[in-house]
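Milestone M4 deliverable, item 7.
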Amino acid sequence: MKNEDAHLVNQFLTGNENAFTTLVKKYQKSVHALAWRKVGDFHTAEELAQDTFLKAYQKLGTLKNPNQFAGWLYVIADRICIDWHRKRKPSTDSLETTSGEEIEESSYRHYEDEQREAASVEHRQRRIKDLLEKLPESERTVVTLHYLGEMTYKAISEFLGVSPNTVKSRLQRARNRLKEQEALVSDTLGSVDLPVTFTENIVKQVATLKPVTPTNSKPLIPWAISAATAIFIFLLIGVGSQYLARFQKPYNLNARSETTVEIIDAPIVLDTQAEPDLRNQVGRFDTTGKSGGAGSQISEPFVPAAAQVEKETRPSTKQQWIQANGPEGSPVTGLFLSATRDIYAAASGGIYRLTPEASAWTLVNATVLTTSSETSETHKWTSMAEHNDTLYLVSADDVLASIDNGETWKTLGAHPKGRIKGFAITDDAFYLALEDKGIFQSTDSGKQWTLLNDVETDTEILAVAKIENTVFVGTTEGLYRIRAGAWKKLSIDTTKAIHSLAVSENNLYVGTGPDITQLQTPEGIGAYIGQIMGSDTSSAWEIFHSTDFGDTWTEITPTSDSFMTKISPGVKVIAAGKTILALGITASGSTDGGKTWTDYGFDKSDLNSAMNSFTLSLFPAVGVDENTFFKVGPLGLIRSTDAGKSWHPFMTGIVGTHIQDLVAFKNDLYANTWIGIVKSTDGGESWETLTLNSEELTLKPAANVNFTNLLMFPKLAISDGVLYGITPKLEEENELRLFHLSANGNVLVPIQAVPTLGKDSAFIIDIIRQSDPTHQREKYPGAFAVNGDTFYVEYKRRLFRWKRGDSEWFNTGLIDTVLRGFKLAVLGKIVYVGKRDGHLFQSLDGGDTWKDVTPNLPLRFERFNDITFAGSTVYIATDTGTLMSKEGEHWRALTDKTGAYTITLVTKGSIN
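Output delivered:
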């Protein structure tokens, strides 16, 4: 495609006008689609597309690299659309100076325009524009070019300057978001045709134009450089290099010279004059302390979407992104114990293996996609099985097989889409369980799938297990057995849902509990609590045992007087040998196959315990032997080596931690993960977990950290040269931990005498609400800021303030009625808070009183991205642009040189 374009451009430059006509026919739909995407009107887009080709005709002689014609044309179209937006407000002329014929003609044109616009808006925009607006910008553009522009992946990639795989993944994500509306978008956009005279009109108009004649001159190459010039260059490259970036400007779309840029998915860096204490930096930077520069650094010139021209291959001296080694940890989506006693874990970074003698996980395959390529759903689980010395993996999209212990995988075929609940293989077939879609069977090794319709309608599948060639399926309506493709509902003395299944040799264990859907209404919660409170012996869950493939059952439910044990809405059963673990809000264990039980009680340090009881069998678990067990939870993998009495994190070797914040502080890197704060002194090559200890001033190994001291979803802030953090106390309700980094940077020191935020008296209801993800998020601090000895924190959608020495937290009165998600910035007594509903509040007295300054803002937006101070100037980054104000009264929207609102993220860091 590139060579064809270059040939046509060269033909045109040598006088062949038909070559330009060919280029018009080739790209007219693409340019029209892009213009419609920018202006939202099909007929206006036609006019702008024509203007684009006329401009290209005039300027084609200035194109230095004909291979970049597609990207160059994209830039022209984008500029013309921007100019249209800027000029679309027409100037008005006095009717007194206008002739009657002109008025009549203008009125008729106005009538035609109104009719045409009404039809277009009614038939096209109203139906699909709203749908496309729900997509991110990058996906919107790809969808428009694909359906309206009728462009292939490769054509779009060359047009936008990105890889074909990027185009494909964006289109797949967009299709998933649109779901059943995709056909509507495809049919509507696909039915739009350009007039047959479109190309002819352009050809007629270019006949009156004079193209720019290309120059054949070459730049003057100096034969000698003076000594003074050499010295200047040496100083510029050497001594002054740390200051050079301060004056580096982003790529200017209006520049006359042609610049090759690399397109990456990243926000625009705010190009402001750097102050001594302000460091804006994108990319990897030197933290060794060797450079004394404190100015703003930009490692790559970031450009707007309009400048997405194709990258020309050439040697580059620019800094490149490098994958850091850690921190350790990652969401784990699957867990499996093989016949050789190897454990396999599917994580975001690939497939990991733990052999019986190993002390750390080993990455055996990094190419298998363990998360869905078509959805942003948080929990896309994988499932594994083994049959005839072959490992099988059901990823989010495909079924794969490996015959070399997971190192290489062969794709067998795609599987039906849905939330994976289990996967089993017999000599006859593959069986795949999808939560609310049923059981699917494949008799050709995963190539084709058939739905087995023997389960009642509206039944949800919760668990799957296999003994030899028999498959068991636990559902909300009972337990089913599959033999040779035949279904049978088994008789168990329970009316509860089957939450979990566990197998040890030929022993099948079933864990039951209430249908969790009944706890989603006040009536259901009341009935559930009444059932438990109405009997001294009644329990919300049960455990049954069978040794004959489910024909007969024995109840082995542990007896307990513990109220916490009884109310647990479900139980997860794990078995290995004679050891059985029953995990709910509390934990119980048996070492004799369920004949006797030991109550391990409620372990506040094990956050997975409550989650397992409320999420049924969502998180996988395996029993290696009678003492060693692994289970997955919100915090990753944890292991027990004492038959379930205690649990400890075990993520050694698994890299892929979700990092919420990355802070550069005193030449070191600090990152807050889901479960703590880690530090790197070598630019991200190695990481150490910081412990919370007021006495120890040296780093302790992560394995020795008390689980109760986990810093769950911490927040970080810097004030007066000190790094602060906040996290909830896991063992207490409504209590927060405040801490600061020790002077030597090795330990997090607790701040003493931090008051509680109040007690929650509705304890039972709070337990039921654990299954609500919104409630789970509210337990952790949101926005966090520090000014001197005053702390501000968002907690349970309210903004609180505490000053050292105060006896209680002060409720500032700000509350977000939707969800947690304040954006917060503090400078002295000045406080700014951006709420999720799009309102900006200002306080000039530290939060005692508030003023809604939203009406004063010159920009309309839906959400806040960030708020920060740079000196005394506050910057408000939103989804449509950035605002700034020096005194808080008068606001200005920042734009680029074309007048477009392109800056949506501002960053302030501190390197001391």
